[in-house]
Amino acid sequence: MYKNLLSREMYDYLSWHISEMEKERDILLNEHYIEETKESINFQEFFRDYLEQIKNYLSTATVDKNGSNSCPFVIIDSIVEVFDSEETEKYKYRIVLPFSKQYDASIDCASCLSPLGRSLLFKSVNDNVSVQIPTGVLHYAILDITLPDAKSTILTDTTAYTVAE
C-alpha cells in the first residue's frame, strides 16, 4: 500500500498552496522584512524549509481516485482541532501567516512563526505535540485538520476541482 496516497483534489490543493505561499512570502518580505536582519533571514529560512517539506511530500505522493481527500498534515491556513490532555478540553487553532488580517472570531489564530504554530505545522491527526510557551508546556493530541474553506475551487489547467473536508 502507498504511504502518501492522495486524491487528485488534495494533490492539486497542496500544489496550489505552494504557489500561494510563495506569493505571500514575497509580499511579506517586501512589506515587513526589507532589511537584511536576523529576523528576515530566519523568516526566509522558515519559508524555504516549509515549502521544501511540502514539495518533498508531493514528490513521494501517489495520486489515486481512492486517495485521501483530507489534508495529510497541518499547513498554514489549516484549522487544527486539538485535545489538551491536562485541561481535558478541545481547542481549535487556525495557523496563519504573520501580520495576517484574516481571522474568524470563533477560532483562535496562531502565527506559523509562534511556538504554537511551529509546533503544530506538519503534524498529523493522532500526533501528540508538546509546545513550550512562556508560561509552561502545553500537551496536545491532534484530533482533526481541516482547510479553511472546504468548498474552495482550485483551478488546474482548465479543470476545476472542489476540495472537500
From TrEMBL:
Pfam families assigned: GreA_GreB
InterPro entries referenced in this protein's UniProt entry, alphabetically: GreA/GreB_C_sf, Tscrpt_elong_fac_GreA/B_C
Molecular function (Gene Ontology), one example: translation elongation factor activity
Alphabetical list of SUPFAM superfamilies matching this protein: FKBP-like (SSF54534)
Keywords: Elongation factor, Protein biosynthesis
Keyword Protein biosynthesis found: yes
Domain Transcription elongation factor GreA/GreB C-terminal: start-end pairs: 73-146
Alphabetical GO biological process terms: regulation of DNA-templated transcription elongation
Statement: the UniProt record of this protein carries the keyword Cytoplasm: no
Record-given protein name: GreA/GreB family elongation factor
Organism encoding this protein: Acetivibrio mesophilus
